[in-house]
Every structure is written in C-alpha cells, then in structure tokens.
Amino acid sequence: MKTIVGVRFRTGGKVYYFEPGDLKIGRGTHVIVETARGVEFGTAVAPPQELPDEKVTQPLKPIMRLATEKDERQDEENREKEKAAIPVAKEKIRARGLDMKLIDVEYTFDRNKIVFYFTADGRVDFRELVKDLAGVFRTRIELRQIGVRDATKMLGGLGSCGRVLCCHSYMSDFIPVSIRMAKEQNLSLNPGKISGMCGRLMCCLQYEADTYAYLNRRLPRVGDEVTTPYGTPGIVHDVDVLRQRVQVIVDVGDEKEMEEYPVEELKFTRRPRGGKKDKQDKQDKNREKLTKEELKELEKLEKQDEG
Fold this sequence. Notes:
4 domains, GMP Synthetase, Chain A, domain 3
C-alpha cells in the first residue's frame, strides 16, 4: 500500500498525486512540490489516503514542504503578474495580426517560465510573437494551443442551471458525452438547449445517462402494442420515463380513449432499443420543431460526437 495525497495547481485543474511523507496535510493545505515544469505551488484536495501499489502511477514524487507565508505571497504576486501580462500579450498579438485568441496566462511558481494559452481555428506561426514576448517578460516563453472546452474550463462562468460550470469548479478531466445521451433522455435536440458555453454538448448530459438507460429498458416504445390489466389491446401513445407510467390508446366501442397505467401492469414484448425504426421515430419527433439553422447546428454536434 502507498500513502498518497492529491494536489491541484489551478481551480478545476487536473489532480496530481504525491507522497506526503510525515507531513500533516489536510484538505486545502498549500504545499510546495516538484513537477516536470519545476517547483510548483499547489493545494491538497483531500487528506492523505492509502492505495494499492498497482493503482499508483510511478514514479511518485514526495511533497517538498508545506507552503510558508513567503510562498503564499509569491503565489499571490504571480497571480498579479499573470493579470498584468494579459493585455500586453493581446497587444503583441494584434500588432502581429495573428488569428488567435488569448485565453489565459500562467507563471510557474519560480517564474522561470510563463505559459500563454490560446485558441485558434488552425495552425498559427507564432515564432516572431515568442521573440516579442521574451523581450518584454525576460523569461522562457511557451505558447500552448488549446481546444474550446479547455478554454471554457479555464475562463469559467455560469451554466444554464445558474451554477458555476462543472468543468471549472470541480471536474479534473472531461467525460465522454454523446448526442445519444440527449436522445435517451428525450430532451429537445435544440442545440441551444443541450450545448454548453463551449459550444459542445453539456457534460451534465452524462450524469443521468445510466439511470435513463436502465429506466427506458423497462418501458415499451411509442407505437408498441400492449395489453392493459383488463385484457384490452392498445397502442402506446407516450411514456413518462421517471414515473414509469405509460399512456395507452384503447378502443372503446367506436371511439378511442387515452388511459394511463404503471408499466408493471401492462403486458408487452420488449423489442431491442436502437433499431432503425426506433432511431428514425426519435429523430422525426425531436427534429420536427427545429429551424433550418438549428438543424445545421445539430448536425455539427452529431459529427463531433461521431468524431
């Protein structure tokens, strides 16, 4: 067994593991560690815990020491320097006429290097820009191109739920999300409602995906034939996934009536999910209210999913 402690260097950043040794570390304790980029200032995300040797990524470096007041001040100074570097870098980018968007700036703790994160639609020749920045900041310069999701994770913001973005507040890594999850939850396929600030599918679509998949397996499909508790045949009109209730159209004399039953009271043969007819029915139902522009945006999201 190995004793480890998780350390994070940025809000919502990836968690890296170190060996605490004899240091008393709790959640929120600031520590100084050695990384591939050099000495860094980080925050423990939880108290030390024990893990089997096979689950620990080697080599496991030790925590150098607990952060001192001097370290705290230096970290604050670094944050101030990062803020001051942003407008300078933006001006240099404009002067060079480069098609790139600066997202964030990060100093290493020892200030031996400064990293500029940016987004761009394609490759950017920033060799001359590096020289310009090195002349201003007098330290090693690194320009790192990132994707739109990483950019949103760095910048943060509020989601449609009114809470701070999941990726910025606590998610260490992005989770796989597909448009099939939105279909499984019977959500509107309007891109504006299922896309996050990054323009990609919202990460929270994955949170209840397994639950909906399980509940849907217990229900008949819209259009399926079922038998009611009274032995009357009927056709499924709609289903309430969370309540596990089914609306059924039955013939009463020469008229048709709508009745609702708990799924466990109905008799029916479940057909496999994801068949060609089932997919087409879902697409027709979800797409019929979308505008041409929304359909194009949805197709773009589906291609990203397939990719």
